[in-house]
Amino acid sequence: MKNHIILEMRSITKEFPGVKALADVSIEVRAGEIHAICGENGAGKSTLMKVLSGLYPYGDYSGDIIFQGEEVRFKDIRSSEAAGIVIIHQELALIPELSIAENIFLGNEPARFGVIDWDHVNRTTLELMARVGLSEDPTTKIKDIGVGKQQLVEIAKALSKSVKLLILDEPTAALNESDSQHLLDLMAGLRSKGISCIMISHKLNEIEQIADSITIIRDGRSIETLHVKEDGVDEDRIIRGMVGRSLESRFPDHTPTIGETFFEVRNWTVGHPTVPDRLVCKNSSFKVRRGEIVGFAGLMGAGRTELARSVFGRSYGTFKSGQIVMDGKEVTLRSVPQAIDAGLAYVTEDRKSLGLNLLDDIKTTTVSANLQKITRGLVVDRDEEFRISEEYRKSLRTKTPSVNEGVAKLSGGNQQKVVLAKWMFTDPELLILDEPTRGIDVGAKYEIYGIIQKLADQGKGVIVISSELPELLGLSDRIYTIFEGAITGEVERENANQESLMKLMTASRKSA
Amino acid sequence: MNSLKQIFGGNTRQFGMIFALVALVLFFQWRTGGKMLTSVNMMNLFNGNSYILILAIGMVLVIIAGHIDLSVGSVAAFVGIVVAIAMRDWGIPWYLGVVLGLALGALIGVWQGFWVAYVGIPAFIVTLAGMLIFRGANQSVGNSLTVPVPEGFRELGAGYLPEVGPNIGYNNLTLLMGFALVAFVIYNEVRGRRKLEKINAEVPPMWVPVTKVVLLSAVILYATYLFATGRPGTSFPVPGLILGVLVIIYAFISNKTIAGRHVYAVGGNRHAAELSGVQGKRVNFMVMMNMSILAALAGMIFVGRSTASGPSDGVGWELDAIAAVFIGGAAVTGGVGTVVGSIIGGLVMAVLNNGLQLLGAGADDTQIIKGLVLLIAVAFDVYSKSQGKPSIIGLITRRFGGGDGGKKVDTEVPTPSPTEQAVGTKQVISHDV
Cα–Cα 20 to 30 A to B338, which of A34, A169, B235, B331? Predict the structure, then answer.
């Protein structure tokens, strides 16, 4: 039973006009296993899952899908769900203003003569929530629960459709460590009940931890399938498959040249934007030296972003007290323009909703934070705009046919390079990078690290906020840990390791 | 077809709306037996629609920034009656009346901009309220009566360029304007070509710009001829001149200046814009205020044309202006649209209106047809977008230097998920080239 094949996709080829997104991809998923699909961004993972879930209907692709021993031809998502295949997208498809129960039964409401049977809905919701380890009132609105719990609601929704094969696209991308772990445990639990999972993830440590087999896709082709236990797979092995070569090191070599302290924040206290008495930053002090890369470690919600944004022209929360000292002089930065003028730059963790105007093209985005510099009289100089963005395209090696291309068309890594270019063009002294490699594949990460190091070598200060401890350990010269809005520790790179940081991040503030 | 593309800059869709306009004009010219393209009719067309087109200029900025303004008709009417009464009862000269009107428009703009930008009430609500408030104010101030305006003021809405210089049988100023425009077209083409050569880009073969210039010049000169040869005392209308100047100024602002960029940035993604140092509130305030000033101007031009201000001036104008903007390629969600596109959208509506009237169609049929045209124009755009082809309207928009995009349509269209975006959109690029 354990080893029979529940799903087989044979020689799937999917073409968009002018480009082959999938070329002869084959994959076999055994019943009751967790099957990971790995590949760089744009490799074709999501396209494959869209074929499987019927989003690209039969006839749109070539090749066969055999599910539970029968050939299936899905014409839309409904038909794949009827067969027991449910996909949970990276961006959750829940409606914030509806309750948990309403969301779970959305489109599938049990009704008599069009009148919804609420008793049944709420009772069943409680059962489903128990199965995913969620204890909430079924009438709680989705917007009132955290993203980790929302993910669980999605899974409960899938369970309500008697799912046999669950597809999760980047399920832990937005979750913190403990929520991620809970989700992975839940997946293992589903596996033991005979539900198969396909999981797309960039987090190789999670894949290594939980997956039974791994199919690697590169440039629209299936490269190989690894069986974790039998083949003794580790992260380096997966990376080698994904990039087609072995990455010697995940971080470029770098010897920092650290100068004097030029940026200092003292006793920074900031209130929550809507809840009057809550503090998001509590009496935090830190400093940055020239040429230094400073890491901010903390769990999600610890207040790292809040700290960074409140320093960046008070763009978050209500300022209570504290000082910013630059080059020995106290400065007051009341607005974002003031912060930019003072030489600060902040690259947001949320590229799509806070970092980019997705309607813009690359060149407009590149100059958007420093239009003044290319304006002659009243007129924005378009030739200069083109020349500058072209320069950054070359020096950052952004992969795009031209800088006239829309930023929405770029992959995450290339979008991030455009955002970095935009802030480099403001010629900042201090760059605050909030999760600079989120949603970016391994190869592009390496390049981003290189850019960060180069900026530090130019004598700028860099603050890196990251949820990935290995990244902070590989990149930073010094690391601050943040817990519940307060800085709980400061560790030099030599003395830092994951365990000690995690302890400070989850501080038990007694020990800090 | 390929040569057409080359002349007009690369894409079939780009000039779809211009062709629609030309086709409409020719169609009516044929059906009415030549009544469309006459001096008198062209002047009527400009005089009778310039105030809507002026509103469309302000409206497109409001819509790009992600708002809407429903109050423009009422604001225009209120300003009209106040100015008319001020001139009649206080005896102020017509030019001070204009200044007073613009100042009153600005004041109303401050009021509406304050609620939208600084209090954060959706513009739909603020201007719906404004629509009621200023309509009521118009009728309250004017006692629901009609108030005539003096001669000088009427020039604003019904005047023509004066006769100057030697009498050669044509209106000299109109001729001069026409020739200047042709010279500008030629200069612009030459300059663009030089620039392409300078950066070593591919330069189209010589016949392309020549044909383009010849066609454009022919249209301009023909229009000049029509306007310069009307019955004695008429020439290019003053409201048309005001409109032309405003189009140039606002196309320049939206296209070439930091302020213009900021409007697109706020409409495209307000949070991202603010984190890049754009002052979103100020931008919102300015576009709302600007709209009310232009509404005041439109109201005064209308009053000038109809020689009196009345209680039901400006009813329904907001809808005509909004329709023009959406036909002209703006997106309901903001961030997309152009001044020139909106003017073309407005002209399409104007020509329809005018042509149907010449054909003797009633107001009922005219409205039905205009409604259908709006629906079909936008539906066509949405449909072609959902087929993975570039949006027509979007491309027209870009052709006229929308600057910041032209990829969004009025409805949500499923987009490829982030990871596949790079692949998924290549189809879009390669499809229509």
Answer: B235
